[in-house]
Amino acid sequence: MKKYIKLITLTAMTLFYSCQDFLDERQVSNLTQDYFNDENGLESLINGLYVYARVKHEWEANGARLTLAETDAYMTSAPAWARMEVGVYGNDLSNIANNMFNYLGNANASFAPMGAYPHINNCNIALDVLENIAPGVFGTNQSFANQRKAEILFLRSWAFYLVSNQLGDIPLLLTPRRQDDGIYYYPKSSMEDVYNQMITDLTFAYDNLPTSSARGRVTKWAAGHFLAKLYLNRAQGAEFQNSSEESLRMLYKGTNANDLDNAIAISTEVINGVGGLAPDYWTLFDPAVSESNPHPEVLWAAQFDTNIGLNGRFGGNRSVNYHIGNYTEQSGVNRSMIYGRPFGTFKPTDHGYDNFKDKMHDSRYAKTFQHEYIGNMGSNTTSFRWTDATAAWWNANKPADQPEVRSGDIRIQNGRRAIIYLENDKENALDSMEVMSQPFQFLVRWVRSAATGNYYYRLFINGANLGLATQTAPYLSVKKFTDPTRGGSTDESNFNSENGTRDAILMRLAETYLIRAEAYGRRGDYASAVADINVLRQRAAFKGGENRPSSIVQWYPEANELDNSELEAPYAALGDSYDRIMVTENHFTPGTIEANREGYIPTVSTKRDMFIHFIYNEKNREFLGEGIMWEDLHNAGILYDRVMHFNQMASNRTGLWPVAANTAGGNGQNGNGKGQMQRFHTFRPWPFNYLIQLTDQNGQPLDQTARNEYQNPGY
């Protein structure tokens, strides 16, 4: 705290230069407080507040670690993190605590302090100058001043929201601090007070922001989306006011009988104002479209630029690095711009794949993942080779139009398929000789030994165990962040660059629909909720003439549902598949075929509870990898229960998963959970490095008793 509270005496300025990818961060070492007291200085300070929008995407150890992984559907690929071991999660000196310290605010030798509270203090300074000095146009044009005030309040609320999601009760700092007096007295405010403040501020923002603005600046619709979500979160938390579980009781944010109605009303205004979803799900993430002509469905996005010098201290949108498994090992595929840099940091859980219940008809499964890779190494290929056994199998069973092969030859040919993934279940395990005898790496979740009849889970092409936490091994990867301009251009020499240049979506209208749907359902209006969910399903359906990925059609057992014409290249859908994925109340009505197929956890038995869990199943299908699900499951109070039932690496439960013959290693498949998650992990620890810098009102350091009282339960 002592280091980062001096945040404004020497600050990094951020200026707008254009409406597209506008953040230009420049270090200015000779600024004084007086700079912000004139019109240009205040405008620069407000513009600079937008740097904080990048927090979830600019650095793995900051936002991404805290908002992406260890949910029901997404996990860290490294075993210690995925298991939620004590050294990573369980104390105030753990890795997670260190990430929280960065999240709250930390000093940097070459840049201004970063994090939530330095940003909040900058917001407070901007508000103070705007309201009490009102320089230039801020004093002569009330409409302009209100718009800029609305932006400040939105961006301050965004920081309070992100931090309270992690920690619960937090310091609610509303006045500027310009000098370091050695007193670091920051008592926590209740979640009720934090939400009252955010709702008040977002109401002002919603009333005073324009419906359109320069790209990257917040609008009325972004504020409305955020405000509706706050109303929904408060209504969710109200149910836990008297819970016997402390971790649920901590979610209480106050009670207001109108919260669900307000969430519905404001969501409706946003939906009507924006005008609809992007027609094709993939165009939201296709860099050829999303960077040049983003659809209005994107309500707010953090801005990055192909001029990587403008992207701040971490060089850009780092999410390009975190979602991609290693596709280069003995595959004949080299790192390339189109496939991304394979850091293998985060990956789906098995449930994350299996939650897509209609893989043949819900195009989000095809469009979320990179299902196959093409060999690109030419004569320098690292492909594995045919063996006597695999060559013999292939020659005996190959398609008629494919050539025979010889033992010892390179198996993967340049320009041909190099890797294909299949997320099957044990009941649909493939024959091991078939899997191991293809002219590509065939990475199949379940295979059955042709010799012994044993079942094996996630074998590599050399027979090695990939396990549940694959680390940097190949896995079916989310492709939403693939960036062909990382490093600043499309030059293939940038294939090792970590510096992403694409804007990062923070809010989009599909979520607004699901916010309204959940509010309707919690109010008992299931028909209206289903109508909203089906807006997403209509977009998700394959349209007539749209091609399915060949690997899905050729290898998933659901392909037997398709017409014969759809089984032939280019695997075009015969017609719109919406009727196959349309949602009805049966999907969350106990005892129905649809509800049973959805796979609810055993403790979810009523229609109301099934509905709530269906919403979060649908959110996982729509937003997998986008960084909102940890927070949403947390605020709904269902994070722990879903992680324990669905995320085998984080759970400590036994017997919930199918058993394989390859149980070796700490993350092998033996049917049991590998994790150490506890209920209190749904809130994070206050970092030791933060606590030891706190003082009382007189500047005296807090004693151990006071620090223990400040700390969250369980740590």
Automatic annotation (TrEMBL):
Q: Give the UniProt subcellular location, in the record's own words.
A: Cell outer membrane
Reply yes or no: does the keyword Aminoacyl-tRNA synthetase apply: no
Short name of one Pfam family for this protein?
A: SusD_RagB
Gene3D superfamilies referenced in this protein's UniProt entry, alphabetically: 1.25.40.390
- What are the SusD-like N-terminal domain coordinates in residue numbering? 21-232
Keyword presence, Ligase: no
Outline the extent of the RagB/SusD domain: 296-634
Entry-linked PROSITE patterns: PROKAR_LIPOPROTEIN (PS51257)
Homology family = Belongs to the SusD family.
Q: What is this protein called?
A: RagB/SusD family nutrient uptake outer membrane protein
Tell me the organism's taxonomic lineage.
Bacteria, Pseudomonadati, Bacteroidota, Cytophagia, Cytophagales
